[in-house]
Amino acid sequence: MITFDGVSKVFPDGTVAVDDLHLELPTGKITVFVGPSGCGKTTSLRMINRMVEPTSGEILIDGVPVTTQDEALLRRGIGYVIQHAGLFPHRTIVENIGTVQRLTGVGRKAARATAIDLLRRVGLSESLADKYPVQLSGGQQQRVGVARALAADPPVMLMDEPFSAVDPIVREGLQAEFLRLQAELGKTIAFVTHDIDEAIKLGDMVAVFREGGHLAQFGSPQELLEKPANDFVADFVGRDRGFRSLSFDSADELVIDSVASVSTGGEILVLDDAGRPVGWAGPGLGDTSAPIPHGGTFTRGDSLRLVTDLAISSPVGIAVQVDVDGAAVGVIRHTSLVRQLDERRRRRAEPTA
Ligand SMILES: Nc1ncnc2c1ncn2[C@@H]1O[C@H](COP(=O)(O)OP(=O)(O)OP(=O)(O)O)[C@@H](O)[C@H]1O
Questions:
Q1: Under DSSP, is residue 164 helix (H, G, I), strand (E, B) or coil?
Q2: pTM to 2 decimals?
Q3: At what angle do helices 168-185 and 138-150 cross, to 10 degrees?
Q4: 205-260: pLDDT as tens digits
Q5: To pair with 118 at 20 to 30 A between CA atoms, which of 69, 252, 287, 346?
Q6: What residue stretches are annotated with the ABC transporter domain (predicted)?
Q7: All domains of the chain, ordered by start, with CATH?
């Protein structure tokens, strides 16, 4: 666990970058620092590995104040990934990845073997091993940056806007890869971004900062969406937060109707020989010879957000549930869904005994 115990940073010119920060970053989880530009995210991150020293307060890693540790040793135990990857241009990819290992006395061969294994883990081909950074795309360089930070197998990683310099499609790939890797490695990660969607997607916990280095809220992504602590957070998490919060709950609790029940509304769910939905037909759907595509189905474990989206975008307002083989097993009308979401909201609002 990384603890910020009343940490403040005032720069010599009087700028208060971080103001009395109290925060606990859980071990093995991703904690995202998010907020508008200049609110102290990077300064907070850099105080963990002592690139910036606090003016007051203390940062502890597993109960040990970072100030009691040798700076160089401390940094070797903390992976650091920055925007634009920051690779050494005159070193090859394997040399870049092996930098810290070589510093700690690991031999060239062993460092190379680790580097090649890490290349694969971050989704890159071994054929890039002996190339130079300039020969790689921005997204590939970011992956190498992540591999380099992981090479010494540090328990803690600091990541400062690592994916913000690449285009949105590449970023999505990097985020997915990062989550997959973290599920495997379970590092304690502090991750800075100014993008609230990235924070909600990647964070187990999210610290929302506001101007003047104040902490506006610390909570899970779902808490931020469902219960923003104040107008600043509500505004910052943005619109659709009610809808977005549905992605954190599974639809398994919903009461689903039988497939046969759809015909009571006049629609027909057309199935193929294996019972898989093909589309919709019925009097209200125009004079088409072919069924209208259903636009997607859901299955056990899918989110309330997906089911809601399917129901409201369906040509007949009905979301179809399928089993693992794709055969239709039930349906839910958007009217029933709205009623059930309302009941859920009431249940949640009730004080717990
Ligand atoms: N070395 C410094 N000297 C003086 N002021 C600084 C220094 N470094 C940062 N600051 C100021 O401290 C405040 C917080 O900066 P910081 O970089 O931590 O913010 P940030 O939230 O990470 O911003 P961004 O998202 O733009 O990177 C800003 O007002 C910044 O101008």
A1: coil
A2: 0.82
A3: 20
A4: 999 999 889 999 999 999 999 889 999 999 988 878 888 888 888 999 999 998 88
A5: 69
A6: 2-237
A7: 2-247 (3.40.50.300), 251-346 (3.10.580.10)
